[in-house]
Amino acid sequence: MIVVTCLAPVNIAVIKYWGKRDEQLILPINDSISATLSTDQMNAKTTVMISPNFEKDLLFFFREESCMSPRVQVCLKEIRKRASENLKGKKNNQGIDLWKAHICSENNFPTAAGLASSSAGYACLVTALAKAYNVEGDCSSIARLGSGSACRSVFGGFVRWHKGNQGDGSDSIATQIVPASHWPSIRILILVVNDARKKVGSTSGMQRSVETSQLLQHRASHVVPQRTEQILKAIKNHDFETFAEITMKDSNQLHSVCLDTYPPAVYMNDVSHTIVEFVHSYNKIKGTTKLAYTFDAGPNACLFLQEEDVAEVVATIKQVFPPTNENNYIRGIKVPEKILDK
Ligand code: PMV
Predict the structure, then answer these.
(1) How far is residue 60 from each of residues 6, 9, 195, 264, measured CA to CA in Å?
(2) Quick one: how far is CA 323 from the chain centroid?
């Protein structure tokens, strides 16, 4: 029996992925860029056991047996295919590509609440499976088959997911732009506005946007390509102001696309909009851009800032948004998250 346990962190996109050109292969209509958090805060943990004695593949989520979704099955199939290619012609070939797998997975943060849980989950699953089945080489394209954004969590630091041009998805992979050590002063705060499951999942939201939003087509062909180049330059030059401005504009455009979708997909709530206002007021008072927000497919905010500003920002947030009731307020401010290399 082979047993492997892996941790994988969440990644937060600053240029958002929204919209697929191929639903099956999960090929996006635009490139996206993200920052991977360190594994010590929000992560997924997966243990994979493979054995010639197991009769079938099994999946346990938070220790409860759950059904293997088609996407988990696709990842498993792809890993086995690569394992069998690797084993061809090798001596001591035990045929491990045929061994069944028992997979145990959990997150230390809310699932499907717009906190990028699937990105950490599938990156972790694929990394653990690859280790167990001894598969080497790029795994981002396999993680992508589980959940698009998961391909970016395979790497630390700042990461780019190239949309690629091939119909088979072979060039739709993630690459590291710079390791976290390149910009060590960057921090991320996660403001949990609501950790309930979102009403419109990102898969159906995206599909609806592709079918109905004209703004999405404009975004993919005329906005994202320039923004990607600008933010890459800002990251390379440690230019926080430009980085922050592009991050906020891109989040705003994602949610504009969601509203341009018919029927609209509404992810941000009143508290989210108050956070947006708060960030702009804070920057105005400071006379410079110290803080940036970004929102995924949910109401929770991710704030980017620099280490030197963390203490003051956290104190101000605690005053402006005192944790009150349990259900739908900013319930807690996660400890400042340092982006680290994995
Ligand atoms: O990977 P998915 O299907 O959960 O889509 C994630 C989409 C966003 O989080 C909204 C944006 C992104 O690039 O992560």
Answers:
(1) 15, 19, 22, 34
(2) 26
**Do 292 and 186 contact (CB within 8 A), yes or no?**
no
Burial of residue 85 (CB within 10 Å: 0-12, 13-18, 19+) is exposed
**What pLDDT, on the 0 to 100 scale, is given for residue 95?**
87
C-alpha 330/C-alpha 166 separation (Å) is 43
pLDDT band at 94 (very low <50, low <70, confident <90, very high): confident
Residue 21 DSSP SS3: strand
Among 12, 17, 268, which residue has the most ligand 1 atoms within 8 Å of its CB, making it the best to mutate? 17
CB-based pocket (< 6 A), ligand 1: 13, 16-18, 32, 116, 118-119, 147-149, 202-203, 296-297
pLDDT of residue 197: 66
Task: Flag whether pLDDT at 337 surpasses 50.
Answer: no
For residues 118 and 123, give the distance between their C-alpha atoms in angstroms, rounded to a whole number: 8
**What's the rounded Cα separation, in Å, for the pair 34 and 235?**
11
ipTM, two decimals: 0.99
Q: Is 340 helix (H, G, I), strand (E, B) or coil?
A: coil
Which residues, 6 or more positions from 231, have their beta carbon under 8 angstroms from its beta carbon?
14, 15, 33, 242, 243, 246, 247
Is the pLDDT at 290 greater than 60? The verdict is yes
DSSP characters over 183-226: STTEEEEEE-S--SPPSS-HHHHHHHHHHH-HHHHHIIIIIHHH
